[in-house]
């Protein structure tokens, strides 16, 4: 874990980052980097962030604005939110780690970075939750392990309320993890996220 937090996550730069070499085992996520990421960036349909070592992309994620229909949320959460026809949210459209770098904490680092960025932006653009679209059962399991909840009626789509994300970072565990990574720390983060969800 120690090295994990020293690597920088930065916007994709097609001139520096070798998109062709990225391989995460899900062809659509590899192809996205090769052939669609540049256009998405240029047309502002998604912001793309990479965790890279020199030109090598270890992993990436995308962020976009999103809209939730309150009727798609669980009743107890919808009741706590204003009764607007659509609620603003932030979408992690894609998140992937190259197969050569799996199970070293990079997926977690990317996810936490995306959550932090989404939360930080709420002071400028409203967002009630972070939504993810899971490509497969593995992705669902990954997000659920961080406390994401499945939309009733659409298990491939999951969300984490912004309030939970605020609580996660308010506990400062993220900053501690960045500065003094210790074995077991990521479990504290998992636990915190899950605990906050349960307490909502
Ligand atoms: C899902 C993915 C991003 C995880 O990346 P990773 O770098 O291997 O994950 P990490 O090493 O950061 O794992 C951190 C924690 O996530 C959880 N996790 C990771 N993969 C998981 C899985 N398939 N199922 C359940 N939990 C998982 C574990 O709790 C792990 O903690 P642990 O060390 O206690 O086991 C990666 O497997 C991937 O890119 N898969 C293909 C693309 C994909 O499915 N993307 C999902 C969004 S579309």
Characteristics of this structure?
200 residues, Aminopeptidase, seven-stranded mixed beta sheet, 7 helices, globular, binds coenzyme A
If you had to describe this structure to a student in words, what would you say it looks like?
By secondary structure, this protein is an alpha+beta fold. It has a single domain (4-199), classed as Aminopeptidase (3-Layer(aba) Sandwich). It has seven helices and seven strands. The protein has helices spanning 27-42, 75-78, 106-121, 137-144, 162-170, 173-179, 185-199, and strands at 9-11, 47-53, 56-68, 87-97, 129-133, 149-151, 154-161. The protein has a seven-stranded mixed beta sheet, with helices on both faces. The protein is globular, with a radius of gyration of 16 Å. The structure holds coenzyme A (COA).
Give a brief description.
By secondary structure, the protein is of the alpha+beta class. Helices cover about 40% and strands about 25% of the residues.
Count, helices: 7
Summarize the amount of helix as a percent range: 25-40%
Hetero groups: coenzyme A
Order of helix and strand elements from N to C terminus = EHEEHEHEHEEHHH
> What CATH architecture label applies?
3-Layer(aba) Sandwich
């Amino acid at each position: 874990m120690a090295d994990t937090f020293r690597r920088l996550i930065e916007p994709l730069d097609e001139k520096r980052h070798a998109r062709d070499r990225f391989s995460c085992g899900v062809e659509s996520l590899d192809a996205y980097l090769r052939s669609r990421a540049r256009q998405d960036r240029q047309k502002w349909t998604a912001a793309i962030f990479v965790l890279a070592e020199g030109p090598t992309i270890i992993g990436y994620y995308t962020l976009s604005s999103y809209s939730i229909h309150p009727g798609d949320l669980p009743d107890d959460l919808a009741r706590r939110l204003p009764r607007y026809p659509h609620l603003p949210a932030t979408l992690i459209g894609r998140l992937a780690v190259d197969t050569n770098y799996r199970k070293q904490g990079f997926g977690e680092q990317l996810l936490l970075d995306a959550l932090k960025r989404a939360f930080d932006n709420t002071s400028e653009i409203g967002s009630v939750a972070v939504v993810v679209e899971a490509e497969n059962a593995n992705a669902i399991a990954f997000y659920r392990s961080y406390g994401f909840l499945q939309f009733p009626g659409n298990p491939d789509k999951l969300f984490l309320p912004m309030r939970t994300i605020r609580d996660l970072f308010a506990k400062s565990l993220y900053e501690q993890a960045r500065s003094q990574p210790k074995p077991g720390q990521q479990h504290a983060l998992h636990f915190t996220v899950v605990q906050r969800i349960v307490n909502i």
